[in-house]
Amino acid sequence: MDTRITTGNRTDFIDTILRLGAARTSAYVCFANVHMLVEAHNDPGFRKILDGAAIVSPDGSPVAAAVGWFHGQQQERVAGMDLLPALLAEAAQRNQSVYFYGTTEEVLAAMVARARRELPTLRIAGTHSPPFRPLTPEEDAAEVAAINAVDPDLVFVALGCPRQERWMAAHQGQIRACMLGVGQAFPVYAGLEQRLPVWARKLWLEWAYRLWLEPKRLWRRYLITNSHFLYLMAQRTVFRNDAAIKTVS
User: What is the DSSP secondary structure assignment for residue 54, as one 8-state letter?
Assistant: First the structure.
């Protein structure tokens, strides 16, 4: 679907992200699920944002499976919900600092409480819950200055897709850290939202669970987006098979 996906195992991802943070590289990481890939397919501007990411992780199981199907290499799912706690634990080990940006004050407070309880040596540089509206240039500049003042290695961003990806791309070169758009991982880590058990995730049922939680907001996304993704995958498979037949002939 013309979006480049980063491959590797979970350890590779964690090490690369922390090295980007330690170098104070103004970079960003996207976690690609079906919704994000279809958005990028339909919007060249958004696809350009994904192309500008240092890492585009195969967040969704169908995305990881598609990498294996089309490129002949097994790729595990590297989801933001799994990488957030793993990165925090490794950051504590390496004495690197983190910043939480987005969602609500309630969620941020619960995240900090859990992190301090489970990872007492983790350096939490700060948190901020921005207003749910476009910021003025002055407000945005003040937020950037506040983040840079506490000098975090990693900035975890939860503004929802595609808003968080657009925010990270717009602030590349301004925020001296590695930014990660992890979205729904915030309330899950905070303990305010449950996650499906591993067996259900392996059956690709997370979308159904999210739809059950927020049917009014998500029914259109999953009905249209998932169907479009399946159509595009089938189309690409047919194209690939046709090309193989022509090559053999």
Answer: S
Under a CB-based contact definition with an 8 Å cutoff, are residues 207 and 66 in contact?
Answer: no
Q: What's the residue count for the chain?
A: 249
Closest CA to 180 of 246, 104, 116, 86: 86
For residue 40, give the 3-state DSSP assignment: helix
Omega before 58 within 30 of 0, i.e. cis: no
Identify which of 57, 63, 65 has the alpha carbon closest to the alpha carbon of residue 84.
Answer: 57
What's this model's pTM, rounded to 2 decimal places? 0.85
CA nearest to 19, candidates 27, 31, 7: 27
pLDDT bracket for residue 55 (50, 70, 90): very high
- Dump pLDDT digits (tens) for 30-42: 999 988 999 999 9
Q: What do you get for the CA distance between the two ends of the chain, in Å?
A: 26
CA angle 204, 207, 212 (to 5 degrees): 130
Q: Give the three-class secondary structure for 203.
A: coil
Q: How far apart are CA 182 and CA 175, in angstroms?
A: 17
